[in-house]
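>> received
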Amino acid sequence: MFKVFIEEFVPMLNSISIENEEDKVFIEFNDDSSSLFELRNWLEAISSGVQQTSFVFHNEYTPMVFDFMKSEEKRGVLTISEFGDENTCYLKVDLTRYRVVKSFYIAVLNYWNDYKFSDGVHKSCQLGTLIARQLGVSKNLLIKKLVKMTKSELIEFIRKSIVKDSPCNTDTQDHNFRVLNIIKEINDYDKLNSTEKHKHISKLLVKRVKYYYYRDMEAFKSSRIEKFVRQHKL
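>> returned
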């Protein structure tokens, strides 16, 4: 028996429950879904058949390392341990690649398919998380891109990014657009050097904006994972 279940158990706080016959891991995480997208990338790596792959799940408390080491073509060992302390292992289990990939993938889709995540419902995340996900790049690469823009180019780019994924009612968009004041209030922005621009942009990208849940689910879906699951179904 191997089960994965994800739910929102209190407002703005979610949990992942992972269990087999002997162990159970309970991980809490907030509404910033970045780690779920890193989980998706990890599952894609397992689907492609790499020998070993891992990532750090940043939760509310101590970050966890999710690791999968392939032992044979169809099987491998899933390990979940404390980041920075490999001796603190919460779960270690031998499973088929199919079982690992399908269990986590379906759990995330079910989480976003919940009735609470309708088109009219929204939550918040960091602006940098929202835009990096739209572009499919890391936050570091995003900042490098933004630093090269003029003040007017930067403001227009951020406005379009906010509109793309945020609820369209006036109050919510006004709330989201206010984060741009960080840049608007700098009169000589275009005269700043790259280091100074980097500082202001980094401050901008950690501001929280509201966005639609359902867009996360569509962005999370992976044709590579779904093809793997279809082909390796037991």
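>> The first strand starts at residue 3 and ends at 10.
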